[in-house]
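Z., the sequence and structure:
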Amino acid sequence: MPATTRTTLRRGLAAAALPLLIGALASCGYGSDAKNDEKKVAAEGKKLSADTVRLGYFPNLTHATALIGVQDGLIQKELGGTTLKPQTFNAGPSEIEALNGGSLDIGFIGPSPSINAYVKSKGSNLRIISGSASGGVKLVVNPDKIKTLDDVKGKRIATPQKGNTQDVALLNWIAEKGWKVDPESGKGDVSVVRTDNKVTPDAFKSGSIDGAWVPEPTASKLVSQGGKVLLDETSLWPDKKFVITNIIVSQKFLTEHPDVVEAVLTGTVKTNEWINANPDKAKASANAALKSLGGKALDAKVIDPAWPSIAITNDPLAATLKTQSEWAVKAQLIKQPELSGIYDLKLLNKVLKAAGQPEVSDAGLGVK
């Protein structure tokens, strides 16, 4: 065979082999497109009873299950050909409004909005179907103005919103100290200043507030500005656990598409398992998700102390939600609620059993 012919043949074989080699590398997970390929494969799987499922969550570390489960395709993988459509919200009321209005099917949200929405609808619009996170809430203060817990009296302390989970906790703590505060105005022995978490760091820096009872990463942002953690809310709870994030579902969607809800829960359970087994990688993944959603990742001096203070869990810690509702009643923010039926944990416990994990309790507040 002439030399020119052999050279041409070798070049042809090499060209033919190149796409095969690239395909083999991609199938092994090499390259930046590997994760996208996995999402594409999942999307081409069997479609469930709904074409799409709309999932809401906050760009917040206490919603790490959603941040990571959505970004890394872990939830979509379980949905197969049913498309996951994520939506982000900045506050509980707007997410509840979307759920009530039919533009959202499943959401990650705090306990107080869950209680308020359930009570206002007389138990007709949502169910809590899983837990997601515990802890991650701290009282951070200006150490020049507040050195002890008793020094909080007479000071200006921020919470994210009137009647939200942190607001209720602060009002309860103030009451247990024997101090008086009007729950509506926030005025009293302590000035409770309802301030959006986005502006709380600036308010703290300017001196317009003396401290804040806030979730992560806002708490660690204040510490990075010279604040001091005076109290970690976990210290006030039995077993140092309390619910900070639930997963809720529209009752209509749960009734019509239980297979889709089960698939989402399978994805969140697997996401939580991965997070707890890989804390450093999970922290990086959550920060990458925050960057993609907000355009800026958290600084290491903020995320490093914030991340370990949040416990990722499937358990909704139902007994602590009951306690939080009692605090809201005592603070005169709500009337005594009827919470029977707020939980439906049947699908979650089915998923947990299949995964070889222990079932969780609804504290007597489940559907009958």
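Residues 3-27 form the longest helix (25 residues). Confidence is low (pLDDT under 50) at residues 1-43.

Let me know what you think.
H.
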